[in-house]
Amino acid sequence: MEASWWKTLTRSVTGAVFQTTAPASAYIMKEEEPETLVEYLVRLVRGVVPVWEYAGRRNVSSSGTQDPYYVERIEIDTEVPTQGMDVENMEENTVDANTETFAAEPDSQGQPEETAAPGQDETAVAQDVFSPSVLGNVYPLAKLCDYDFLIRNFYVVSQITTITSSELNAKELLAKDMTMTLDSANPQILIYHSHYSEAFADSRPGVVEDTIVGVGEYLASILREQYGYSVYHDITPYDMMEGVIDRNEAYNYAADGIEAILAQYPSIEVIIDLHRDGVNEGVHLMTEVNGKPTAQIMFVNGISKTTLQGAISYLYNPYIQDNLAFSLMLQLKAEAYYPGFCRRIMINAYRYNMHYRPRSLLVEAGAQTNTLQEVKNAMEPLAVMLHKTLSGEE
Questions:
Q1: In angstroms, what is the C-alpha Rg of the chain?
Q2: Predicted pLDDT at 205
Q3: CB-side exposure of 129: number of CA atoms within 13 Å?
Q4: Does 269 have pLDDT greater than 90?
Q5: Is a pLDDT exceeding 60 seen at residue 331?
Q6: Which end of the chain has fewer CB atoms at under 10 Å, N or C?
Q7: What is the pTM for the complete model shown?
Q8: Which residues contact 235 (CB under 8 A, 6 or more apart)?
């Protein structure tokens, strides 16, 4: 058996090299770094890159090739304070698995360019945003049960992992009950940000409301005010260390925070880690929803498994199938009501702290090339999709 000191040394050396050569490690927990030089080399050769490298590239308004070694621009984030946003953490406040028809993927089309000027207030919700009509195509459940069709149209699978038809079985996933009984007296939804400091094209330096945190608060406010959910919005800066951005330990710090919150509020049933993506500067992830320029979103699923080593035992997640079901149900809602809004679901090898509840999501809302308003606009259809899925409403 390999000596523990040797294992520690090996992980330290390969981890350092890995993070130097692959900026993607910002999305990898410390415990998920390669343990051996061989694993490091395999990952590097097979194209270990951030989640956005594998994102569906359809419905992108601007042409451009996504750079697999894009280094996020963080200069606009460096002055983001750890405090300063007056957010009240708690206020008062699923797809019908048995239905036989679901939304089909629309044809790829170019989407309108942004029209919102930086700082322009367009957060007023259109009157019909909460009563959408079916705009996408629908088709029989049998179509979704075609594994090749499902993968080709709804997923992008990281090159370092593998998912089988038995693990991604639409009939079984859509048979799961993701609904919950509304309880406005106790927190049921947790929104947090592993990467608290992520900002946008027109974010003002040092203004936390202009980061993904402000977007999360807008989503929380819709869920509270429109639907009556009790939402706990955690604004802890998990990617900040002594005022400096440090994402090497962000998921580990977030795990500690989640555990503390769940211990205090065991009533929480839904956990959402809200991010913004990082893309090549020539890529603009945008569509139009209810006549407004809206950033596209992407769901990410970690399945705790690499092609090289199989199941990652130290990243055990008893809710992998539930997580997959939850994101697929939401994706199908988007395809029905907001075609072009969701990029394909990303499946990667890791866990992303999705092991605490069956209804766990990692959401990439827009990217650094989007305006703040475009990303805030995306929270409106996302809130509708969440409510329809959690309530079982068609």
A1: 20
A2: 94
A3: 21
A4: yes
A5: yes
A6: N
A7: 0.73
A8: 85, 87, 89, 193, 196, 208, 213, 216, 217
